[in-house]
Design brief:
alpha+beta, 31% helix, EC 4.1.2.25, Dihydroneopterin aldolase, lyase
Length: 118
């Protein structure tokens, strides 16, 4: 069976996710990536937009969820997953990664991220 992967990567958001009070006030920079797989259908051969999922619509869901502060990035990822899979039941699988660019951990020089597979 042929499948199509639709991917969004390197999406940058300023958001207020985090456990610490300062994170909720000041916020942080986040980078999000999403991949979803759907079945390849005859509609794709016919250049039918209804045979696929608009990456603009996927982006809108991600952007909307990034605006709602949460303590856990895992919760943000799951909420994005639930909305996307609820809207497009033809999704076979997917993956979302949310990266906090500068986590407030003393001594850390890198980023922190979570990845949800569905």
């Amino acid at each position: 069976m042929k499948t199509i992967e639709i991917a969004l990567s390197d999406l940058h958001f300023h958001a207020r996710h985090g456990v610490f009070k300062q994170e909720n006030i000041v916020g942080n920079e986040f980078i999000v990536a999403l991949n979803v797989r759907i079945p390849f259908t005859d509609g794709i051969d016919d250049d039918d937009l209804d045979a696929t999922i608009s990456y603009a619509d996927l982006y809108d869901i991600i952007a909307d969820e990034m605006k709602r502060p949460r303590k856990l990035l895992e919760t943000v990822a799951n909420d994005i997953c639930l909305r996307i899979c609820g809207k497009w039941p033809q999704i076979l699988s997917g993956e979302i990664t949310i990266c906090k660019s500068t986590p407030p951990i003393p001594g850390i020089t890198g980023s922190a991220s979570v990845r949800l597979f569905f």
